[in-house]
Design a protein that fits this description.
By secondary structure, the chain is α/β, with parallel strands linked by helices. It has a single domain, classed as Glycosidases (TIM Barrel, Alpha-Beta Barrel). Helix content is 45%, strand content 12%. Helix 19 links the parallel strand 10 and strand 11. Helix 4 packs across helix 20, helix 7 runs parallel beside helix 12 and helix 10 packs across helix 12. The longest helix has 27 residues.
Length: 520
């Protein structure tokens, strides 16, 4: 395949739109089809990525289904992967397990759903001595997916990966919802309390035992295994963002935002926040959102009423900032614990997708400040599923505080705020996805934001499940997105979300992009 032809298609224009991408995809498809399969292979002597980190996320089940040696060979030879990010402590199916229930299986691995057997947990061996300072014990969280006693998949993978020259990072995820068996036992005293006083399925940042638990988990893994680093995932939004629906979730509830536990109250008071006023403000905000959802327009309009409420109750915003403080403190705890074991271990943080399109969320996530806490930032730039997710976000906030603004106009306004290029209309966006230009712009924004204080690794969407009529990953799209990311000159990429969702043809296309980008 001729390098200059492919580069002309996808990198010749400064701001390629989805329209141009679709128009040119046929040409790339022909070029890819003409490329002999032998040209895809990366051997031990080939350093196609140069000094770039070429990572991929995957769960333990892929190694158990297909074999450690086979999986690593596929990743290395087809996609040029030189680092794996394995879900080592994880309860979330987005990063773990086989293909999501109801989605088509990829062309590798088991073709049987693990919906009835998947549990999640620790896919390594917890050591009791690290959990002395917390009531949450690691040895009670061993994943039973492969047998009651658990299997140390991390220990199985590391020696094989090291022999092949592949770095190993352990992913640790603070999930949205823990299994019922844990919630009924050792987590019952540490979960978040919502606005109505109900217990949730997430654990609270401000509980001392929770802080100590996360330090124990990463200290345990860093001390017990010959890894290259740990990537910490914490995809949570604060109460203000959740209350107004500034999220891409399919639904939201202003009545059940969190957290209003005693530890939150104590920390709020220590930081000069009136807890009772904050709680009262969130009840008022809930009333406003509920009226909006019923299409009961205030006389001055939805947004003016929202802004008036924010002026009357500055504690609402202060309580949102308290959430950010708690989240960032956990990140600092994790970094310090890992570096205390070995200062050379790489610490990484995952920056969730909502960061790329939510101005409320962006305002609380300063890249330079985050860069001071970490060695690596994995920035989500998933372009295929972004269309569906962004459309959900726009429709959510348009149903609450921006109800007076037509949804299409609201999206175009938001696009200007975010410095987006020429993306599809709201109705077409789920099927169109986002353009490679979005991948480039968001990667470049992150690199500019960190100011050289840490490495930036954009996460590339390869086969992330979407609804039936929404955009799906293709080899052409995978190639274009990967090339667009490299155009911004990051320190590498991470193919996402997990190998058990990815078609091999898409991995091949990612590998071609890795090779072609190294020639530029």
């Amino acid at each position: 395949m001729k390098k200059n032809k492919v580069q002309k298609i996808f990198t010749g224009a400064a701001n390629p739109s989805r329209r141009n991408f679709l128009k040119n995809s046929g040409a790339l498809a022909a070029a890819l089809a003409a490329a002999p399969m032998a040209t895809l292979a990366f051997d031990d002597k080939t350093k196609a990525a140069g000094d770039k980190l070429i990572g991929i996320q995957l769960g333990a089940v892929s190694f158990m289904d297909e074999g450690v040696e086979k999986v690593l060979d596929i990743l290395q030879q087809r996609a040029g992967v030189n680092a794996i990010f394995m879900s080592t402590f994880c309860y979330d199916r987005g990063l773990n397990g086989r293909q999501m229930p109801g989605q088509p299986f990829p062309d590798h691995g088991s073709q049987e759903s693990d919906e009835k057997t998947y549990h999640g947990g620790f896919y390594a061996t917890p050591h009791a001595k690290f959990y002395d300072k917390t009531a949450i014990k690691g040895d009670t969280m061993i994943a039973p997916d492969f047998g009651a006693g658990g299997v140390d998949v991390l220990a199985r993978v590391i020696p094989v990966a090291k022999k092949k020259g592949i770095k190993v990072f352990a992913n640790v995820l603070d999930t949205w919802g823990y299994p019922e068996d844990l919630l009924a036992t050792q987590l019952k005293d540490f979960v978040e309390i919502d606005l109505q006083g109900e217990h949730k399925k997430t654990i609270c940042f401000f509980r001392p035992d929770v802080r100590e638990f996360w330090k124990a988990v990463v200290t345990d893994i860093a001390s017990s295994y010959d890894i290259d680093g740990i990537m910490f995932f914490n995809e949570r939004n604060g109460p203000l963002i959740n209350a107004v629906g500034a999220t891409h979730s399919e639904s939201f509830s202003s009545s059940h935002v969190t957290c209003f536990c005693d530890d939150h109250k104590r920390t709020a008071q220590e930081r000069g926040i009136n807890f009772e006023r904050a709680k009262e403000g969130y009840h008022k905000l809930d009333e406003l959102v509920q009226r909006s959802l019923r299409n009961e327009r205030p006389s001055d309009g939805y947004y003016v009423e929202f802004q008036r409420l924010m002026l009357q109750y500055p504690e609402i915003l202060a309580y949102q900032q308290l959430f950010d403080y708690g989240k960032h403190r956990i990140l600092e705890d994790v970094r310090d614990a890992i570096k205390a074991v070995n200062k050379n271990l790489q610490v990484g943080f995952h920056i969730e997708h909502v960061n790329s399109w939510n101005p409320f969320y962006r305002a609380g996530r300063n890249y330079e400040a985050l860069a001071s806490m970490t060695d690596l930032l994995k920035v989500v730039v998933y372009n295929n599923c972004a269309g569906e997710r962004y459309a959900n976000f726009i429709r959510n906030i348009q149903s609450s505080i921006f109800r007076d603004v037509p949804a299409e106009e609201l999206m175009r306004f938001n696009n200007h705020l975010l410095n987006y290029g020429n993306e599809a209309s709201l109705d077409q966006l789920p099927a169109a996805g986002f353009s490679p230009d979005y991948v480039y712009r968001e990667t470049a924004r992150a690199i500019a934001g960190v100011k050289g204080k840490c490495k930036v690794l954009p996460g590339i969407d390869i086969g992330i499940p979407t609804e039936a009529h929404s955009r799906k990953a293709s080899p052409e799209d995978t190639y274009a997105a990967t090339m667009a990311a490299f155009k911004a000159k990051p320190d590498g990429v991470i193919f996402s979300r997990k190998y058990s969702e990815m078609m091999l043809a898409n991995l091949d296309a990612a590998g071609r992009a890795v090779k072609d980008a190294a020639k530029v």
